[in-house]
Amino acid sequence: MQTLYAWINKVNALFWERICRSTTPENVKSLSAFRIVVGFFLLAGYVPNFSWIAAAPQALFTPPLFSLATLFDGFPGHSFFYVLDGIVLLSLVCVILGIKARASTLVFLAACLVGLNFNFSFGKIDHSILIYALLLCMAFSGWGKHLALWPDKESRVDSPSKSLSLLSILLCFAMFSAGFEKAISWLDLDPTQNGFMGWFRDGYYTLDRHYLLARYVNYFPPALLEIFDYTAVVFELSPLFFLLHSRKAWRLWLLVACIFHVTNTFLLNIPFMANSMVYLAFTDFTWLYERFTIAFTRLYVKALAAATILVLFLMRAKEAFIVNPSASYLSPTDKIELKLYLGLLLWTIAITLLARSILRQTTPPEQKPQKAIDPVLEVQF
Length: 381
Known about the structure:
The chain crosses the membrane at residues 36-60, 80-99, 106-123, 129-151, 163-180, 227-245, 252-274, 294-317, 338-359. It comes from Rufibacter latericius. The protein has one domain (1-360). By secondary structure, it is mostly helical. It contains 15 helices and no strands.
């Protein structure tokens, strides 16, 4: 029994050690630059607002069984969601500015999760969980220690290697769960039944996803569509193998993931822009940290950054507090194509940064032995 126990602990230690080697950042300070990138991304166009929910008919209130919303008899009033939106916006600005970024990130995350419980009480959910997993992990990465107005103090709960290792495992699990479900129905060796076309037709004919190259998909030969099915399954089931192999292999898989999303944007009109931030967490932003450090010594740069944050804050506040019910219930079709082009731009930037990171990859500094990879009984990462 002791031999089995020792073997399990050894395998566990080696597993997390390999993952840490693939994900530990070359320069911890670069995570502070990444914090600003993520904050601006969220504030510019991805931060959720929930005030519109208060105007929804109570008859639509059908929360899932395991949801915070089940504790309520219906949708709360406007005051509840106004306060929630205010917390979301203010905490996000604090994340960008580095005002106790660890606590601000957790407050932003908690407020968003409360709001999303009600947002998903209409009988439909969204696939935005990875961006919140990113925030949870990065809150304990030490990304608030630099480039900050009120820096976080040194804390034993901060560990860049553990944070990114956990994020990588969550990403692998998310991909595996999607790929496993596809594998059950898509790998059928039957060219007359195609999983990719099932996705495409639902979006094309039901959701009016007919932009970019979508109109040409109906002309693709069956053999090519079968290749799409098998390629998607292999891609989504494979990230853990790349993660365990090496840092370069992991980043190569992330690069392929970006290309995969570009293809989805062109053919299925599904951009999944938030995933780009998750993938970019594993690149090296040291170059950006150095530029920010120099730029923020200049007064006009600080003024420009403050003005940009203020303008974006006011835009998001207007969306949150000046509710237009018709715009909230119905997705404005005139913005769909714009989002697709923005998604392509974002994925192009992500591909460029990942390729650059692979080509210029350096070995991270030696880490002191951590309890996370010692052969002990605790769950380790």
